[in-house]
Amino acid sequence: MRLVLDTNVAIAGLLWSGPPNRLINLAIDEAVQLSSSPVLLDELAETLRHPKFAKRIRSVMV
Q1: 3-state secondary structure of 61
Q2: Domain, as residue range, for 26
Q3: Tell me: the pLDDT tens digits for 15-43?
Q4: What is the CA 40 to chain-centroid distance, rounded?
Q5: Cα(59)–Cα(62) distance, integer angstroms
Q6: Nearest Cα to Cα of residue 2 among 36, 37, 40
Q7: How many structural domains comprise the chain?
Q8: What is the pTM of this model?
Q9: DSSP string, 19-59
Q10: Contacts 24+ apart (CB under 8 A), 28-31
Q11: pLDDT grade, residue 62 (50/70/90)?
């Protein structure tokens, strides 16, 4: 199965636990395939640069 995650779902899946995180883990386990586009990836990168996510990103990276 192929999934396209919008930016909000991708961020929630990367930074918090819950259903979006389970989708990310399914992709890591190769149970589903994530698909995207350059536009969505640019939006994700830009959104993750927002200062409100900095502390959460640091805590996830540890």
Answers
A1: helix
A2: 2-61
A3: 999 999 999 999 999 999 999 999 999 99
A4: 11
A5: 6
A6: 36
A7: 1
A8: 0.88
A9: HHHHHHHHHHTTSSEEE--HHHHHHHHHHHTSGGGHHHHHH
A10: none
A11: confident
